[in-house]
Predict the structure.
Amino acid sequence: MDPIWQQLICGSLDPLLKAAASVDPTDAAALQSLRSKGSAEQVAVILSLLEARKRARGRLEDHDQLWLSVDSVQQATRTSVARHKARRFRTVLGDGPVIDLCCGIGSDAMALAEGGAVILVDRDPLRLRLARANLERMGQPAWVLNADARALPLPPLPLHIDPDRRVGSQRRHRYDQMHPGPAVLEQLMERHPDLALKCGPGVDTDNLPAGEVEFIQDRRDLVEATLWRGNLDGSVARRATLLPSGETISGDPAALDPYPDENPAWIHEPVAAVERAGLLSQLQGRFAIGELHPRL
């Protein structure tokens, strides 16, 4: 791991970090002054940390205290969503160890650790060290393993896995485009019956393995789909959940019946999670609603 990150986490660069927090990174004179207090490499790493913390604002709790890299923030699970998922793990399975595979900077692991033991696994040594530091900051023990999921015999414990779904800046929505791919993921599913697979909200559900697919919306943002398997599967095909309220509906996806009036008094735009889960028809028993036009 980069020794500068190790120095940062251990606190030996705290004076430089404090000085950098008040510097405008576009101010050349201020940057030159900052570089007089540390090496150019140290300043670059610290500025990247501060930028990552800035990007995490509104997404990760205590963002200004977490150990983050810029690229890891893009993939980190929002704190509200991580806690929602962790609640199911702990309610169903108790406080026993859960493996967080492809843990990144540990946003899911931090939520899981609030209710029990967590084992952190990632092939990137920097992200793994950041995740460990984030858990230790909470006062939680962190068991870590730097390894690749493609060649890793893990004990048959409950598993949360967040596979890579990007190529550069491009998101990938198909199950067979995840990394690790289906061959590895399905081996993991055999060895770990109780499993949650984090997917993007645009995932092609037709190609996913069997299990409950939950679409999770945080306020206005549809942020994640989770495939739940084993005892974590709620025995429904689809679920839509709205946070922070926790309101949820579930059932089988079905087409919404047409609305009988071509000139309705009101036109409602459905909550994205409910629409994406195909569960608008579940609301027809509660409200006088219908589809105004197919695929509108």
